[in-house]
Amino acid sequence: MKKRLTLLTIATLFIAGAFAVPAQAQTSSFADVSEANPAHNAIQYLADNSIITGLDNGTFDPNGAVGRGQAVKILVGWRAEQLSASSSHFTDVDPTYQPYVETALAKGWLAGYPDGTFRPYDSVTREQTAILVDKSLGLGDQALALTAPQIAATLSPFLDAVAVSPSARAYVALAIQKGLITGDSGRLTPLDPMTRAQFSMVVFRAAGVLDPTLAGASGSGTGDQVLSDSGTTATTVADASAQPDPVDPRRQALAQFMDQDLFQPHNSAVTGDMVLQNADWYGIPPLSQLVIMAAETSLGDPVLGGSLARHNNFGCMRYHGADTVWGQLSDARILVAGKDWYSFPSPQAGMTAFGRYLKSGVDGFYVSILDSPNPDWHRFAAVYYGSDVSGFSSYVSRLYAIQASFRAQAKASGVSL
C-alpha cells in the first residue's frame, strides 16, 4: 500500500517573515474578513506578524483553498527555518516553492510521491494539515508514541473517525489533543480541503502551543469554532445536536429494512447502519450506494459478486490505481475491491472507502448525480464503468432495474429510499 504524502491546506498565502510579538485583535486588514469572523483574530495575527498577506486586490479570500507548496512555505516561514540551497528532489517543484519544500523535506516534515513528484499546486486536506503541523512543531515522535486505544478514544467522538487514513490517525489524534484541529458539525472530514481561514486558525493555535501566553490561540471554548467550507460558523464535536439520532425510528426502520431484505439474504458483512453512516459522512443517499453495490458486488458478497466487480474493481481502481481512496484504506492484499471486499481492515473501512470514492472520485463528478432523487445512471456509468466497454448498455439498464426493485421493496416494507 502506498504511503500518501501528508500536508495541509489554505489558498494563496505568502510568507514575508516569522512570528513576532503577539498582536491584539484590531480592525481587519482585509475587506472580506470582518471582526465577527471566527478566524479574524488568527488572520490578523498572522498578517500583523508578516506571516501572510492577502491577494493583490487587498482581500484575503478566507474561503479559498491553497496548494501544498503554499502551505509548506507558510510553515517554514513561521518556524523561521533557514532555507535550503539544495537542488530539488522533486520533478515538479518550481523555484517559487523549491527552497521551502527542500527545507521541509530536510526537516522530515514531508515526503514526495512514489513517482518523484510533490504536486505543489494540489490542494491539501485536513488530515494532511494535522500531520504537517504536528511535525513542524516537533511533535511527530509524540504522535507516533500514542497507543491504539489512545488514538481510538480521541477519534471515536467524531462520526467519521474511520475515514481518517491509517497513516494519519496518530497525527490527527495528537492534533485534536493539542487543540490544533476541531470538527465540523461533529465530523473531521479528513479528506476535505481546508480554507485559508481555517488554516490561519490552525497556525495561530500552533503558535499558542509554543507560547501559551498568546491570547486567543487556545483550541478550547469559542476558539474551537471554525469556518465551514461554506464560510459559516460550524459546531464542534461537542455539539450533540449535530450527531444523527440513534433512536430515530425512521432511521432504525430503514436500517432494519436494508439488513433483513438486502444484506442478510446475501450473507453480506455490510449493514444498513454502515450505509446510513456513509450517507451522513459523504452526502451520498442510501439508494445510490445500494444500487452501485448491488450491480457490482451483490451488496458486497464475495461469492455472489458480479464479474464487473471481480475484473474492474468497482470501476475506480481500474481507472485510478492503488493510490486511490480504496488503496489507502485497504490492506496489502487488495487487487480489486469487489473481489477482495474483505481484504479491507473491516467492512466499515470498506464502506468508508466506497463513500470516499463516490464523493471525491473524478473531482467530485459523481456527487451531484448520486444526490439526485432520480440519478442519471447513464451519465454516471459513462465515467464509472466506461461507455466504450462491452456491455455498457446492459449495465446501465441493470442500474435502473435495481433502483426500481429496491424502491418497490422499500415501499412494501413501509420505508422510502
Notes on the structure:
The chain has 417 residues and is an all-alpha fold. It has two domains: 40-241, no CATH class; 249-412, Lysozyme, CATH 1.10.530. The chain has helices at residues 40-48, 68-78, 98-107, 126-136, 140-144, 148-155, 169-177, 196-210, 249-263, 272-282, 286-297, 307-312, 316-320, 325-329, 347-370, 377-386, 392-412, and strands at 226-227, 233-234. Residues 1-25, 220-246, 305-322 and 331-342 have low confidence and may be disordered. The chain has a two-stranded antiparallel ribbon with strand order 1-2. α9 (249-263) crosses α10 (272-282), α11 packs across α17 and α15 (347-370) packs across α16 (377-386). It has 17 helices and two strands. Helices cover 45% and strands 1% of the residues.
Total beta-strand segments: 2
Biggest sheet, spatial arrangement of strands:
1-2
Tell me the span between the first and last alpha carbons: 36 Å
**Approximately how much helix is present in the residues?**
40-55%
Q: What structural class do the secondary elements suggest? A: mainly alpha
Number of helices: 17
Runs with pLDDT <50, length 5+?
A: 1-25, 220-246, 305-322, 331-342
SSE sequence, one letter per element? HHHHHHHHEEHHHHHHHHH
